[in-house]
TrEMBL record:
TM helices/strands, residue ranges: none
SUPFAM superfamilies on file: cAMP-binding domain-like
A Pfam family assignment: cNMP_binding
Protein name: Cyclic nucleotide-binding protein
Domain Cyclic nucleotide-binding positions: 19-121
Superkingdom of the source species: Bacteria
Amino acid sequence: MRIDDISETRNIARELARKYSTMTHEELNVLENILEPMRFAKGQMILKEGEVCKNIYYIEQGLIRQFYFKKGKQITEHLGEDHTIFMCIESLFKEEPTSLQVEALEPTIIYAIPKFRLEQVALHNVNIQILYRKILEESLITSQIHADLVRFETAQDRYKRFCKLCPQVILRAPLVYIASYLQMTPETLSRVRSSTLLE
């Protein structure tokens, strides 16, 4: 790890602490020591189907999509942007191969938080326990919001809500992936976008 990586890792530890839990200087040191910086080029796979997800990932900069195959088609399950968390939660906790894949849609800088090491240090650090819990809560809430969006909202309301929730993703992600995430065809998404612009 280079010197600039070390100082940047410290900044990420502070960022995570600000977002999820207040921490002492010692706890920040502990968190910093388990963070693993990773860099991915546009189009590079972060996690492939059949691999076991061993980390929680924090996106410092970039854009990712989680997807799976159903009847030969790619289905987008999640689109993640700067300063957000992602994981393959079932694979992470069952320690089984994932059916999900994760791809970088832009050049992306990620910090991996290994689950095993996080759980080890959380045993001795209350604020790191809180951080771990709040990260899991955020992930579950994000999944619930998406599930409710596609179950209960019309196509137009789905798109409007997603624009409010993730304006940067709307601007940066390819429309085909946004359409898949919102469970509509690209043609429907184009119509919805056009009618929304006319309002």
